Amino acid sequence: MRLEVKGLGKTYANGVKALDDVSFDLEPGMFGLLGPNGAGKSTLMRTLATLQDADRGAVTLGQVDVLRDKEAVRRTLGYLPQEFGLTPKARAEDLLDTFAVLKGITARADRRAVVEALLRKTNLWDVRRQQVGGFSGGMKRRFGIAIALLGDPKLIIVDEPTAGLDPAERGRFHNLLSEIGRDAIVILSTHIVEDVANLCPRVAVLFQGRIQLQGSPEELCDRLAPRLFRKVVAHDEVAALEAALPVISHRLRAGRHEVRVVADAAPEGFEPAPASLEDVYFAVISGRWS
Ligand code: ADP
């Protein structure tokens, strides 16, 4: 199954161009869509999930025209939005069973088997009789994945998956996603660069409604590395450097500031820096990539 997005465009009634000629092709596996708030990620995810319409462009999933044949897409789509309401007093097992009915799994025995398999897969079998209102953030996210996986979807869209999770829960959630990515297309939309760097063999950076670049994290880092330089300075030197140089980021390192620039040659006192996906991301959103 292949997802092809071509020339997708969306301008809201207030004139905001949320998507501007967005194109990419995906095969099964994990795809990371990175972008700051307001980049257009939700607009893109909601359009792919058939929850809103685009103005221009074409999207196909296998043989299905995603923008026109919404019912067919919904049968093969799993969508995990950032926030989803759960009936707090419902027990996990019963709630998943209800969602399974909504997804069209009407035979009771089939449903029982599917619900058990998904609760086991998401590591929630032991807590299946607990009320979802009492679940931790990580458990709720995993339960959301169980819902999204009903009906064996070929395209799974996950919006901002790990916001608010502790490191152990985040790790469990990552393992679950990469397992799912073995045979479905999984799109992970987030502004948390680290999540994408660890999980996704392919990434794209969306900024101001446009896909600014895409590729593997290694490839993008290799492209940036020859032009990335760093210098450690005191706090009161940062502002002057920012005014004078193409600075993409500065961060605290043991009480001092490490300033990173993208330039054709090392500025005075700067040394070459190893590039991470975070540097790539900051280079793009600060307008210093090209
Ligand atoms: P992201 O998910 O990356 O934060 P969004 O897709 O939510 O980005 O938003 C992209 C841009 O479109 C932002 O400038 C946002 O303010 C604007 N926008 C989003 N939804 C609407 C809407 N319903 N009406 C008008 N503008 C919107």
Q: How many domains, in number, for the residues?
A: 2
Can you tell me the CATH architecture of the largest domain?
3-Layer(aba) Sandwich
N-to-C order of helices and strands: EEEHEEHEHHHEHEHEEHEHEEEH
Task: Please work out how many helical segments DSSP would assign.
Answer: 10
Characterize the main sheet: 6 strands, mixed
Structural Rg = 21 Å
Shape: globular
Give the ligands present.
adenosine-5'-diphosphate
Separation of the first and last Cα atoms: 34 Å
Q: Please give the CATH class of the largest domain.
A: Alpha Beta
The largest beta-sheet arranges its strands as: 6-7-8-3-9-10
Assembly state here? single chain
Number of strands: 14
Give the helix level as a range of percent: 25-40%
Secondary-structure class: alpha/beta
Average pLDDT figure: 92
CATH T-level topology of the largest domain: Rossmann fold
Query: Could you name the ranges where pLDDT drops below 50 across 5 or more consecutive residues?
Result: none
Task: Give me the CATH superfamily of the largest domain.
Answer: P-loop containing nucleotide triphosphate hydrolases
Strand fraction band? 25-35%
Provide a quick synopsis of the model.
It contains ten helices and 14 strands. The protein has 290 residues and is an alpha/beta fold. The protein is globular and about 70 Å long.
